[in-house]
């Protein structure tokens, strides 16, 4: 088989993987999920105060997953209401489809039986000082600890985060199986894409060095630098290159 045909087949395979990976993870159809949010202009609210704002109706329903709030960093609170529409208990995770956030704190809310006072249990604690190595698992996207939702039960999740510019916050509720499938698909795609692309870049660089062409060497270096940028955006750079140095996430 001609080498050019082999390259075309490899490129088409990678393209097909990219297309298949664009399907977003969504909540299980057996779960009803509603989301509301408001802007914390004072940046001083605690979880109790934020929950009170939602209780008195100050939260706005999220119509889509993009917050267009200007170019300044904006503190917001998001309340997710989950309803299990089945007769079986569910083991779930909250997934934020981003690899890194300056601030993302998610809590599940339970009511103390004695006082009916809300009890907040941490699910995600992400901030500028928290390295990747301290996360609850080694999946690149931010995700919560496992939590349960009883049969026909309702649960509230409270999220405190920072958005800047047109920010995309694809919060999803996944079952254990959906989460495992997502991690497997993500790992397979990453291995194929980065393995193939890095090999192309290194071959390009070696060829450029062999012919001693300065412009070709520059292009090869820029190609590999671009691959590093993609790895940074995807979160694989946080995971493998500087898992204990969160300040590198800025760059």
Structure description:
- The protein is of the alpha+beta class.
- The protein is 36% helix and 29% strand.
- The protein has five helices and twelve strands.
- The strands form three sheets. The chain has a six-stranded antiparallel sheet, with helices on one face. Strands 5, 8, 9 and 12 form a four-stranded antiparallel sheet that branches.
- Strand 6 and strand 7 (118-127) form a beta hairpin.
- Helix 1 (3-21) packs antiparallel against helix 3.
The largest pleated sheet is described as: 6 strands, antiparallel
Strand composition percent: 25-35%
Rg over CA atoms: 22 Å
| Number of E-state strands | 12
**What class do helices, strands and sheet pairing give?**
alpha+beta
Low-confidence sequence ranges: 14-28
Distance between the terminal alpha carbons, to the nearest Å? 43 Å
- Could you report the average pLDDT, rounded to the nearest whole number? 84
What is the H/E string?
HEHEEEEEEEEEEEHHH
Helix content: 25-40%
**Shape category:** elongated
């Amino acid at each position: 088989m001609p080498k050019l045909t082999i390259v075309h087949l490899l490129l088409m395979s990678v393209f097909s993987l990219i297309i298949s990976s664009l399907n977003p993870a969504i909540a299980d159809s057996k779960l009803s999920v509603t989301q509301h949010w408001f802007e914390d202009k004072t940046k001083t609210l605690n979880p109790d105060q934020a929950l009170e704002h939602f209780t008195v109706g100050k939260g706005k329903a999220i119509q889509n997953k993009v917050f267009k709030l200007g170019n300044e960093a904006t503190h917001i609170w998001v309340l997710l209401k989950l309803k299990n529409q089945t007769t079986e208990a569910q083991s779930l995770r909250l997934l934020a489809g981003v690899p890194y956030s300056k601030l993302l704190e998610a809590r599940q809310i339970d009511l103390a039986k004695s006082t009916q006072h809300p009890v907040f249990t941490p699910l995600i604690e992400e901030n500028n000082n928290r390295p990747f190595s301290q996360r609850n698992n080694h999946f690149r996207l931010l995700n919560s600890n496992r939590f349960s939702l009883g049969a026909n039960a309702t649960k509230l999740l409270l999220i405190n985060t920072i958005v800047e510019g047109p920010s995309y916050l694809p919060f999803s509720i996944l079952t254990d199986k959906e989460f495992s499938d997502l991690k497997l698909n993500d790992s397979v795609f990453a291995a194929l894409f980065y393995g193939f692309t890095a090999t192309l870049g290194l071959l390009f660089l070696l060829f450029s060095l062999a012919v001693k062409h300065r412009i070709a060497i520059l292009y090869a270096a820029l190609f590999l630098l671009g691959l590093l940028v993609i790895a940074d955006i995807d979160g694989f750079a946080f995971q493998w290159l500087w898992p204990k140095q969160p300040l590198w996430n800025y760059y």
